[in-house]
Amino acid sequence: MYSVDTKVAPDGLLKDKVTIVTGASQGIGAAAAFGFARAGAKVVLAARRLGPIEEFAKRIRDNGSEAIAVETDVANEESVKNLVERTVNHFGRLDCAFNNAGVDQKPALPHELSLEEWRYVFGVKCDGAFLGIKYQVPAMLATAGKGAIVNNGSVVGDRGVATLLAPCASQAAIVGLTKAAAKAYGPNIRINMIATGGIRTAERFDMYPEGAMAHLPAKRPGTSEEVASTTAWLLSDYASYHTGDVIPIDGGYWA
Hints:
By secondary structure, the protein is of the alpha/beta class.
């Protein structure tokens, strides 16, 4: 499913950059972890499920790159703090982070949505991005002196979906979080957000059946690797003038 041969960026684009990837047990996060490693990064794979990320980290190491796996709940402050501390203790520094972890909401109209599910979605997406920045930024400044962070968001933060209240609201909140944090820590720490839409991951292959994306200029779903490619560029030194930006990866949905 995911391979050490996954190429999302030119070789050496992220050479020796110590990079955290949350939500790395599947989908976009897994593709990013393998692709970043091939591009030269030293990767820290983080997810609640330790088994898959340990397997992925081993495969990356067996291919000659450096990687570790850290069991992490991004909605838990101590867990995120531990992730960053483990990263710095192992590699001696932190250069980049991809705050990718996410969660789905079962479609429901606003009056049908429970407060528990609302809080769960916000915990993973908003608390996860906030706690990531809270601990990643000081580590970057202390060890590397600079850094780059990308938050994974969605086009639904700009376009309402009647049955996805919690994702719409939480993704809109991440826009504000990203922009405010970029102003707080510029120019040393660049913080951007990607807004994905119509991405068909290996685990959710049937989510966008043939022809479902006909209304998009791209006329097809996007892939995890295409998301990872844009993210790799934003984390690299070639995106040095990008901070506080929201970059859509949506096949033209916003068009």
